[in-house]
Design brief:
Strand order of the largest sheet: 2-1-3-12-11-4-5-10-8-9
Helix content: 40-55%
Bound molecules: 3-isopropylmalic acid, magnesium ion
CATH architecture of the largest domain: 3-Layer(aba) Sandwich
Number of domains: 2
CATH superfamily of the largest domain: Isopropylmalate Dehydrogenase
Order of helices and strands: EHEHHEHEHEEEHEHEHEHEEHHH
Structural class: alpha/beta
Distance between the termini: 19 Å
């Protein structure tokens, strides 16, 4: 029996609603497994801006040092959209990832067979899809400097820098190879090496890491435009995909729609193990449905399951949560995002309740 401390950042929009459901599940796991979870709440995102003026206040950074893992729901919304770039809630999220050195973002996309008809794609294209996007998360064009406006230029000019160091690429390729080793040993690295130097650099390092350290892995390469097309044309050809921060951001949203709803997809953001892992759904704060008890809590609950499995080595507990969710979906329970016309729609709370009931 172990005791773990978790920082809960319930954020903005639908964040607080889906957090409640995940914590109901955690309580049950605590009761069933005998493990102890100590929760501390922190401020992050728009709500943190409102209360402290900073999307990632020092008090939250201090809390990071006291916990074993971080569960974050979603941040941002129209209220903060017009703030200067550097003060937006999103910038707090980027700083949080950086603070935790969480360079590896694992975004699995698995199609639940009973939901195959909820996707906008045909059942035969997506049934059986089970892939993992490994996204580099703390470098690339999101963080590269210099960035901003060029005041010397003849006309208004703005720029960002897509920058990677060799060690940054090595560690993310290594992480993707390790994931591929526990899956099908197939890895596809996505870049734009036909145009960008930084992508050719990425590709060369990917080849070097895979051939020298993971000889069993079958490594392939795709240009990002082709990868985006192939993901829709024939997603079953993929197992593990690895890409840079920006390409991985885009491809993981695309991959999520194979499953029917972005409301189903969890993620884990991990460093070298010396700092707490960060777990968050792939979706955003959905301000349009915030406070209406309509959001799908499944991505959040699956993020919790990833936390149990990866940060706490509670594999059986994580499996139990995943199995319960699968069962609930098989029994036909649906939130609005995955319901077909005419199907009964559950509230966020009701969905959390049926998952808990099944878990019991
Ligand atoms: C994501 C989001 C974030 C990102 C935003 C909110 C900064 O889109 O987690 O995928 O671009 O990384
Ligand atoms: Mg995104």
């Amino acid at each position: 029996m172990s005791s773990k401390k978790i920082l809960i950042l319930s954020g903005d929009g639908i964040g607080p609603e889906i957090t409640i459901e995940a914590l109901k599940v955690l309580k049950l796991i605590e009761k069933k497994s005998g493990n102890k979870f100590e929760l501390i709440e922190g401020l992050m995102g728009g709500i943190a801006i409102d209360k402290t003026g900073d999307p990632l206040p020092d008090s939250t950074i201090k809390q990071l040092k006291e916990v074993d893992a971080v569960l974050l729901s979603a941040i941002g919304g129209p209220k903060w959209e017009n703030l200067p770039q550097a003060q937006k809630p999103e910038r707090g999220l980027l700083r949080l990832r950086k603070e935790l050195d969480a360079f590896a973002n694992l975004r699995p996309a698995k199609v639940f067979s009973c939901l195959a008809d909820s996707s906008t794609l045909k059942r035969e294209v997506i049934e059986g899809v089970d892939l993992l996007v490994v996204r580099e998360l703390t470098s690339g064009i999101y963080f590269g400097t210099p960035r901003g406006f060029d005041s010397q230029a003849k006309e208004k000019t703005c720029f960002n820098t897509a920058l990677y160091t060799e060690s940054e690429v090595r560690r993310i390729i290594k992480c993707a190879c390790e994931q591929a080793m526990i899956r099908s040993k197939r890895l596809c690295s996505v870049d734009k090496a036909n145009v960008l130097e930084v992508s050719q650099f990425w590709r060369d390092i990917a080849i070097s890491v895979a051939t020298n350290d993971f000889p069993e892995i079958e490594l392939s390469h795709l240009y990002v435009d082709n990868a985006a097309m192939q993901l829709i044309r024939n997603p079953k050809q993929f197992d593990v995909l690895v890409s840079s921060n920006l390409f991985g951001d885009i491809l993981s949203d695309e991959a999520s729609m194979l499953t029917g709803s972005i409301g189903l997809l969890p993620s884990a953001s991990l460093g070298d193990g010396s700092k707490p892992g960060l777990y968050e759904p792939v979706h955003g704060s959905a301000p349009d449905i915030a406070g209406q008890n309509k959001a799908n809590p499944i991505a959040m609950i699956l993020s919790l399951a990833m936390m149990l499995e990866i940060s706490f080595q509670m594999k059986s507990e994580a499996k139990l949560i995943e199995k319960s969710i699968e069962q609930v979906l098989e029994q036909g329970y649906r939130t609005g995002d995955i319901a077909k016309p005419g199907e009964k729609i559950l509230t966020t709370t009701e969905m959390g309740d049926v998952i808990c009931k099944t878990l019991e």
